[in-house]
Amino acid sequence: TLHPELVLPEPSDPTALLLRASEVKKLSLAIRTKAKANAIFVEGTVDALIPMGKEQEDARGNFPGPLPIVYSLVDESNLADSLERLQDVDGVEGVLVPFFGGKAIEGVDDYLEEAKNHPSLADGCSAIWEAGLQPIPEIVLSSGAKWPEEDVIRLVDAVKDTCGGLDPVSIVFTSAQDDEGSDEEDDKDEPLTPKITIPDSISKRLTFIGSVRTTAGEGRMNVATSQLSSLNFNGAFLRADCVPGYRLNPDLNIVGGFWSAAIGDLKSLKSKNFSFRSKVKLAKDVPMEWHNYQKDIMDSGALGGPSHQGGGAGFDSDAGDYKGF
Question: How confident is the model at residue 321 (pLDDT cuts 50, 70, 90)?
Answer without folding.
Answer: low
